[in-house]
Predict the 3D structure of the following.
Amino acid sequence: MGKLTNKTAFITGGTSGIGLATAQDFINEGARVIITGRHSETLNQTVASLGPNAFSIACDNGKMSDILQLPERIKAITPALDIVFANAGYGRFAPVGGVTEAMFDELFNVLVKGTFFTVQQLLPLLREGSSIIFNTSVVTAYGSQNASIYSAAKAAVQSLTKNLAADLTAQKIRVNSVSPGYTETDIFNKTGFTAEQITGAKDYITPLLPYKRFGTAMEVAKAVSFLASDDASYIHGAEIVVDGGYSVIR
Ligand SMILES: NC(=O)c1ccc[n+]([C@@H]2O[C@H](COP(=O)([O-])OP(=O)(O)OC[C@H]3O[C@@H](n4cnc5c(N)ncnc54)[C@H](OP(=O)(O)O)[C@@H]3O)[C@@H](O)[C@H]2O)c1
């Protein structure tokens, strides 16, 4: 028996990277999984690769009209949920003088507003004993160049972790987050930087990492599966950092 047997999970942004690895691990642990993403074709391909315990709903985390439809669309698949992994997101990076209002609004809309209202809308579907996991980021632990708005948005999600934990204790819903360090996913290819800039950044960062390598999406997924499972029954309002020690070792 897997540690998520008989549980049904909802993962935002499950078509690649950390969300996809988590969907794979949840299914390996016995769960049924509903994933979201913005593109139906990608979702269909991903569900086909995940197998019969995977389902999908197209939903843009930055669009309230999509988010408000989620409860009805989930009910067409399952009457209730046990796990929510609020993971969907991406980064936009610029020095402080280069940040535009549009970039600010876009990141806070997708990473903070969409994440909050997704969880709010799903609350009536969550069984007693459910687990909510947010995806923050290790960038919140220190200052880094060009990351002011991405980091501020993720810090807001850190705050949601603690405050929703307080609000949902009475409903016996646990709320935690996972804070990934540098993790090998598609996120870097979607930043708007050139391939050369991305390679340059990775070459600069890798020697600074304690293990001299990026983490894998599955290494983050394993922490999410733990938080989702009853093994984490006394972990509430916490953040597990999965960064190979980067934020604490110098
Ligand atoms: N990789 C890292 O180093 C790292 C470190 C710390 C935190 N994180 C966080 O981890 C999360 C996942 O990122 P990743 O690294 O796994 O990147 P990824 O491989 O690019 O995956 C991002 C996922 O989110 C989905 N997504 C993006 N924008 C969306 C939107 N508006 N609505 C719905 N789905 C959306 C993407 O699906 P579609 O494109 O198909 O819509 C995709 O499934 C993000 O919140 C990111 O900030 C990543």
Summary: The chain has one domain: 8-187+217-240. The CA atoms of residues 178 and 240 lie 5 Å apart.
